[in-house]
Design goal:
The protein is an alpha/beta fold. Helix content is 39%, strand content 27%. It starts with a strand and ends with a strand.
């Protein structure tokens, strides 16, 4: 898989920090759990050992995923993001055409989404529906509750 993974610098650094933590401190913790579980005796009927093995598998899987993601990362610099359309790294001022409410969302990579902070993933239904739209365009977005309509009022860099 050679697809680029778009991240902000902040998102890249956050994932790199998580990877460092997992490869150092967390690996030691899991190794100690495995060692303790082995010391309990018969491994065939040792629930603690099975749990520790599963924790090690999940940890190594997450480390692998992070390494692959960081290796394919393309950092989106806010100063380089065009604002003619909605892209990763832009902030959109929207008008909900049904309610008349004005909203503001930043389009971010999936790993950086935080709806409570107004950061929506470009892979979410809302993000996909807004991506590539220009100011004054109306985005019709199908969601489980129906169809939302947003007019893009303004686009700025995040």
């Amino acid at each position: 898989m050679t697809d680029k993974v778009f991240l902000t610098r902040e998102g890249f650094e956050k994932l790199a920090e998580e990877l460092k933590y997992l490869k150092t401190k967390k690996r030691r913790e899991v190794a100690n759990q495995l060692e303790h579980a082995r010391a309990l005796g018969d491994l065939r009927e040792n629930a603690e050992y099975e749990t520790a093995k599963e924790a090690k598998h999940q940890l190594e899987s997450r480390i692998h995923d992070l390494e692959m993601k960081l290796a394919r990362a393309k950092i989106v610099e806010p100063g380089n993001v065009p604002i003619d359309k909605a892209y990763v790294g832009t902030t959109l001022q929207l008008k909900n055409l049904k309610t008349g409410d004005t909203l503001q969302y930043s389009l971010v990579p999936q790993d950086e989404a935080d709806f409570d902070k107004g950061k929506i993933s470009v892979t979410s239904p809302l993000g996909k529906g807004l991506l590539g739209k220009a100011p004054k365009e109306v985005a019709e977005i199908k969601v489980p509750a129906g169809i939302l309509q947003f007019e893009i009022l303004k686009i700025t860099r995040s």
